[in-house]
């Protein structure tokens, strides 16, 4: 029997271990392979001979359940882009120079030596570039080693997929945060403005998810600004003034990536210095906080939804976790059937409409990696309102199913009982 | 039959409605009073005639359960300090000038007019000042209206009480956040420093709670800095270097209130300006992030645990919620017995030791308000290690019981199903 290999790459999410768990469950059930190796720190684990035998670490359903609900990457990660096979660059690995060809040989020597039939890479746009390059190399060199991607990114910006694993949990965390912020900000008589900055440098999906916080008693966030529409500080201030006429405590959601007409991040023009004269960068939220204070003379605070939006394992979407597992399983069977250079995808059966009663049904398949690697899917302009300061009902219909359901997380001593962090072996 | 009156004051917590719910449960069970009025926006609701009949709004156990698990103040809040009865100041209320005496009369006229037997004020140090002043006034003027405080503050800085309602939930949220941050920061090979800034201007209890994140696989936070010990940037940088020798990804927890030897907030010396030349304030975390980058040339990020640390109803401590209800009930019966000018307190039966096996038992009673109003309880120096960069085992023993247990929160459409925000009636 042959073996499998898997690795995780890029930035963390709360669901990336669920995809690893999804592959593990099929590996155990299927009994068609002998071992499953997990590379540490993504593909770079091959360069440093760092890997684990996952089949030895996870044997029972309980162990895999715990892995599935643990945020971030159990195997560690990397931000490493393989050089193009035609590149003449020299690559330094552990102090030794390698040609591009040697780097690819190093990787495939590892696969051959360990009798790897399929390699799975869980990641986003950049990681899919690795899947593309490795699968091309294998095909070109007549190596029957299947290279399959499994999607992952809180940014939800991969092409050819309805939504990405990790996004639903991030969206749920962001919406819950905005709801709780609305409870926090509504208690005083004094008028106030709260600006909530949400992740997303290029695509506004995460900021859009804040709209899900709105309910029968709260209109928070009162406006939403995405990077897909050029941002005007003057218009923003005018919007604040408009909302202040209707209510006392205003909450505005902004994407960290909002840019002006010329494409510059809106806080870029600032020249802040610490006491040693060093330039300090601040975010869009802080910048707008100062603008509101200065121009309107009103109590204003900015809140950065911090890195928990990507790793809040304590508040994940059950839909997201289950779909992430299923995408792992889909890649597992695609590779087994002989597919290579593909990524597993999830597609919505019914089109998204402005009705909130759309039935949410999905199907799983695979897509050629060429269409996905290095691509970016932004929020379509038609899902942003005309004024560019809110999302449309279609966006709400699209987002709503993704945050449904809660997982049953175990607690120990008052805190989530996660699978531990993999230390250096 | 006579009536009751209650209000909430100060900053929000995730457990302040639990204390309101605690009073409501006894009110319904006891059937000794006719009505219970809730003042909106704290004591200032009397000035503006804004109040609700809580007995009409909450009748069933289910309704009160939902209220109990809703963060922030259902009744709204204020940051209003009553003038001293001897003050000669003139107070403006709704555009009309009032003498101090008239303000007190306004309040007690309301109580008399509504046949109020007892008034409960849920709040922190400043709110207990209101309890002190009103109870003194009632006693001096032979008015049999009992004025009782119910404690509340995430800061845990009230004197004469083992710990304050709201603190345990904030501590649990902070510890869970640090645990998840440890998963987030540990995935790359590249060395990194993460500085986590936690609330607490004067007392370091909340920052200390980050220590609870440590478990069998994670040492995060690697060091903890509280405002009770003068902070040295040089020592901090040296600590970062020390930890970097042991591990690749360092996480330091700092209280927002850390100050230098002269008592100045450590980011105070900065002079940052936006593009219009306006001074921008940043926090301790951002300041230290820049120091680390500059001095050590290492990847560094600061994370501000945002306002969710005080209102994260989605991750509260069951111990905290139940104790907060019980403190409401304790004040209810204290007032009924004729006590006035008191606050309900919780005390630990067994002393805190360095053993983690201490049995956690508490008892409830009341304490004279004179000992509590305007007081601040800081972290005792002996619960901070000698070097001033961590907490002791006694602190862990003290904190651990407070975050135990999870509540069963209902979800609706993927988000917590909270009691709505009280709009203007």
Mean pLDDT of chain A: 94
Approximate helicity band of chain A: 25-40%
Question: What's the shape of chain A?
Answer: globular
Name the helix and strand elements of chain A from N-terminus to C-terminus, one letter apiece: EHEHEHHEEHEHEHEHEHEEEHEHHEEHEE
Tell me the count of domains of chain A: 2
SSE layout and pairings?
The structure is a homodimer of 425-residue chains.
Chain A: E1 3-8, H1 16-30, E2 36-39, H2 44-47, E3 51-53, H3 54-57, H4 61-68, E4 90-93, E5 96-99, H5 100-113, E6 116-123, H6 125-140, E7 146-151, H7 167-185, E8 192-198, H8 205-209, E9 223-225, H9 233-246, E10 249-255, E11 271-273, E12 279-280, H10 284-296, E13 299-304, H11 308-311, H12 318-336, E14 342-348, E15 362-368, H13 393-399, E16 411-412, E17 415-416
Parallel strand pairs in A: 1-2, 1-6, 6-7, 7-14, 8-10, 8-13, 9-10
Antiparallel strand pairs in A: 2-3, 4-5, 11-12, 14-15, 16-17
What would the keywords be for this entry?
2 domains, Rossmann fold, alpha/beta, seven-stranded mixed beta sheet, 33% helix, homodimer, 425 residues, four-stranded parallel beta sheet
Description:
- Two copies of one chain form a homodimer.
- Chain A has two domains: 3-166 and 313-375 and 407-416, Rossmann fold (3-Layer(aba) Sandwich); 169-311, Phosphofructokinase domain (Rossmann fold).
- Helices cover 33% and strands 19% of the residues of chain A.
- Chain A is built from 13 helices and 17 strands.
- The first copy, chain A, has helices at residues 16-30, 44-47, 54-57, 61-68, 100-113, 125-140, 167-185, 205-209, 233-246, 284-296, 308-311, 318-336, 393-399; strands spanning 3-8, 36-39, 51-53, 90-93, 96-99, 116-123, 146-151, 192-198, 223-225, 249-255, 271-273, 279-280, 299-304, 342-348, 362-368, 411-412, 415-416.
- In chain A, the strands form five sheets. Chain A has a seven-stranded mixed beta sheet with strand order 3-2-1-6-7-14-15, sandwiched between helices. The first copy, chain A, has a four-stranded parallel beta sheet with strand order 9-10-8-13, with helices on both faces.
- Chain A is globular, with a radius of gyration of 23 Å.
- The two termini of chain A are 26 Å apart.
